[in-house]
Amino acid sequence: MYQAIIDKYYPEDGDLRRLLLKHSRQVADRCLLICDRHPELGIDRQFVDEAAMLHDIGIRWCSAPSIFCFGQEPYLRHGPIGGELLRKEGYPRHARVAERHTGTGLPGLEPETLEEQVVCYADKFYSKSRPDRVLTVAETAQSLERFGHEGVEKFLRWAKMFE
Protein backbone atom coordinates (compact mmCIF):
# COMPACT_ATOMS: atom_id res chain seq x y z
CA MET A 1 0.00 0.00 0.00
CA TYR A 2 2.62 2.56 1.01
CA GLN A 3 4.86 1.70 -1.93
CA ALA A 4 2.19 2.80 -4.43
CA ILE A 5 1.83 6.15 -2.68
CA ILE A 6 5.60 6.70 -2.54
CA ASP A 7 5.86 5.73 -6.23
CA LYS A 8 3.11 8.21 -7.10
CA TYR A 9 4.68 11.20 -5.37
CA TYR A 10 8.36 10.22 -5.74
CA PRO A 11 8.46 8.44 -9.12
CA GLU A 12 12.05 9.27 -10.04
CA ASP A 13 14.88 7.24 -8.55
CA GLY A 14 16.87 10.17 -7.21
CA ASP A 15 18.58 11.32 -4.04
CA LEU A 16 15.37 12.52 -2.39
CA ARG A 17 13.50 9.26 -2.96
CA ARG A 18 16.44 7.21 -1.70
CA LEU A 19 16.76 9.38 1.41
CA LEU A 20 13.01 9.24 2.07
CA LEU A 21 12.98 5.44 1.77
CA LYS A 22 16.06 4.97 3.96
CA HIS A 23 14.81 7.29 6.71
CA SER A 24 11.27 5.91 6.62
CA ARG A 25 12.52 2.31 6.80
CA GLN A 26 14.72 3.21 9.80
CA VAL A 27 11.72 4.69 11.58
CA ALA A 28 9.44 1.80 10.61
CA ASP A 29 11.95 -0.81 11.80
CA ARG A 30 12.25 0.91 15.18
CA CYS A 31 8.45 1.04 15.44
CA LEU A 32 8.21 -2.68 14.68
CA LEU A 33 10.84 -3.43 17.31
CA ILE A 34 8.79 -1.49 19.85
CA CYS A 35 5.66 -3.43 18.84
CA ASP A 36 7.51 -6.72 19.26
CA ARG A 37 8.98 -5.74 22.64
CA HIS A 38 5.66 -4.51 23.98
CA PRO A 39 2.77 -6.72 22.83
CA GLU A 40 0.93 -5.66 26.00
CA LEU A 41 0.43 -2.21 24.45
CA GLY A 42 -1.70 -3.65 21.64
CA ILE A 43 -0.16 -1.41 18.98
CA ASP A 44 -1.44 -2.08 15.45
CA ARG A 45 1.80 -3.42 13.96
CA GLN A 46 0.81 -3.36 10.28
CA PHE A 47 -0.62 0.13 10.53
CA VAL A 48 2.49 1.44 12.31
CA ASP A 49 4.73 -0.01 9.59
CA GLU A 50 2.66 1.66 6.86
CA ALA A 51 2.33 4.97 8.71
CA ALA A 52 6.06 5.12 9.47
CA MET A 53 6.84 4.56 5.80
CA LEU A 54 4.55 7.48 4.90
CA HIS A 55 5.16 9.92 7.76
CA ASP A 56 7.46 12.17 5.67
CA ILE A 57 5.57 11.96 2.36
CA GLY A 58 5.18 15.77 2.33
CA ILE A 59 8.87 16.72 2.34
CA ARG A 60 9.27 17.28 -1.41
CA TRP A 61 7.11 20.42 -1.30
CA CYS A 62 9.32 22.01 1.35
CA SER A 63 12.54 23.97 1.19
CA ALA A 64 15.40 21.97 2.70
CA PRO A 65 18.13 21.86 0.03
CA SER A 66 20.57 19.98 2.26
CA ILE A 67 18.24 16.97 2.05
CA PHE A 68 17.29 17.41 -1.62
CA CYS A 69 13.98 19.21 -0.96
CA PHE A 70 13.55 22.18 -3.28
CA GLY A 71 9.94 23.17 -2.70
CA GLN A 72 8.58 26.50 -1.54
CA GLU A 73 6.99 25.63 1.83
CA PRO A 74 8.81 25.91 5.16
CA TYR A 75 10.09 22.50 6.25
CA LEU A 76 7.96 22.67 9.40
CA ARG A 77 4.93 22.23 7.11
CA HIS A 78 5.95 18.82 5.74
CA GLY A 79 3.72 17.01 8.23
CA PRO A 80 0.50 18.89 7.45
CA ILE A 81 1.27 18.70 3.72
CA GLY A 82 1.71 14.93 4.05
CA GLY A 83 -1.53 14.76 6.02
CA GLU A 84 -3.40 16.53 3.21
CA LEU A 85 -1.95 14.14 0.61
CA LEU A 86 -2.80 11.03 2.60
CA ARG A 87 -6.38 12.21 3.24
CA LYS A 88 -6.75 12.83 -0.49
CA GLU A 89 -5.53 9.26 -1.09
CA GLY A 90 -8.13 7.91 1.36
CA TYR A 91 -5.90 7.19 4.36
CA PRO A 92 -7.10 9.42 7.22
CA ARG A 93 -5.37 7.43 10.01
CA HIS A 94 -2.05 7.60 8.18
CA ALA A 95 -2.66 11.32 7.59
CA ARG A 96 -2.92 11.91 11.34
CA VAL A 97 0.48 10.28 11.88
CA ALA A 98 2.09 12.40 9.15
CA GLU A 99 0.72 15.67 10.48
CA ARG A 100 1.46 14.88 14.15
CA HIS A 101 5.03 13.53 14.02
CA THR A 102 6.99 16.82 13.93
CA GLY A 103 9.00 17.34 17.10
CA THR A 104 6.88 15.76 19.82
CA GLY A 105 3.85 17.36 18.22
CA LEU A 106 2.95 20.89 17.19
CA PRO A 107 0.27 23.01 18.91
CA GLY A 108 -3.06 21.52 17.90
CA LEU A 109 -1.33 18.57 16.19
CA GLU A 110 -0.05 16.42 19.02
CA PRO A 111 0.18 12.64 18.72
CA GLU A 112 -2.77 11.11 20.56
CA THR A 113 -3.02 7.39 19.78
CA LEU A 114 -0.27 4.95 20.71
CA GLU A 115 0.41 4.43 17.01
CA GLU A 116 0.86 8.18 16.45
CA GLN A 117 3.11 8.38 19.50
CA VAL A 118 5.26 5.42 18.51
CA VAL A 119 5.99 6.81 15.03
CA CYS A 120 6.68 10.27 16.44
CA TYR A 121 9.00 8.76 19.06
CA ALA A 122 10.88 6.50 16.64
CA ASP A 123 11.37 9.34 14.15
CA LYS A 124 13.37 11.37 16.68
CA PHE A 125 16.33 8.93 16.57
CA TYR A 126 17.08 9.48 12.87
CA SER A 127 17.95 12.62 10.98
CA LYS A 128 17.62 12.89 7.22
CA SER A 129 20.64 15.20 7.21
CA ARG A 130 22.79 12.48 8.84
CA PRO A 131 21.08 9.27 7.71
CA ASP A 132 23.72 6.85 8.97
CA ARG A 133 23.63 8.11 12.55
CA VAL A 134 21.33 6.70 15.21
CA LEU A 135 20.89 8.89 18.27
CA THR A 136 20.63 7.55 21.80
CA VAL A 137 17.72 8.47 24.06
CA ALA A 138 19.96 10.99 25.86
CA GLU A 139 21.19 12.57 22.60
CA THR A 140 17.65 12.77 21.27
CA ALA A 141 16.39 14.40 24.47
CA GLN A 142 19.23 16.93 24.28
CA SER A 143 18.42 17.72 20.63
CA LEU A 144 14.77 18.36 21.54
CA GLU A 145 15.68 20.79 24.32
CA ARG A 146 15.98 23.69 21.86
CA PHE A 147 12.21 23.40 21.25
CA GLY A 148 11.33 23.56 24.93
CA HIS A 149 11.55 21.34 27.97
CA GLU A 150 7.91 20.21 27.73
CA GLY A 151 8.71 18.28 24.55
CA VAL A 152 11.73 16.69 26.20
CA GLU A 153 9.59 15.53 29.11
CA LYS A 154 7.04 14.03 26.71
CA PHE A 155 9.82 12.24 24.79
CA LEU A 156 11.28 10.83 28.02
CA ARG A 157 7.83 9.55 29.07
CA TRP A 158 7.62 7.78 25.72
CA ALA A 159 11.12 6.36 26.25
CA LYS A 160 9.96 4.78 29.54
CA MET A 161 6.95 3.28 27.80
CA PHE A 162 8.60 2.10 24.56
CA GLU A 163 12.17 1.10 25.45
Radius of gyration using CA atoms only: 15 Å
Structural class: mainly alpha
The number of strands is 4
Mean pLDDT: 96
Number of helices: 8
In terms of DSSP E residues, the strand content is 5-15%
Order the strands across the largest sheet as they lie in space: 1-2
Helix content: 55-70%
Shape: globular
Separation of the first and last Cα atoms: 28 Å
Question: Strand count, sense and closure of the main sheet?
Answer: 2 strands, antiparallel
The ordered H/E elements are: HHHEEHHHEEHH
Low-pLDDT residue intervals, each spanning 5 or more residues: none
How is this structure best described in words?
The chain is mainly α. It contains 8 helices and 4 strands; from the N terminus they run αααββαααββαα. It has a two-stranded antiparallel ribbon. Strands 3-4 form a two-stranded antiparallel ribbon. The mean pLDDT is 96.
Detail the topology: elements first, then pairings.
Layout (H helix, E strand, L loop, with lengths): L1 H8 L5 H23 L7 H10 L8 E2 L4 E2 L7 H11 L3 H9 L13 H10 L2 E2 L2 E5 L2 H8 L4 H14 L1
Antiparallel strand pairs: 1-2, 3-4
Helix pairs in contact: 1-3, 2-3, 2-6, 3-5, 3-6, 4-5, 7-8
Summarize the structure.
This protein is mostly helical.
Search tags:
two-stranded antiparallel sheet; globular; 163 residues; mainly alpha
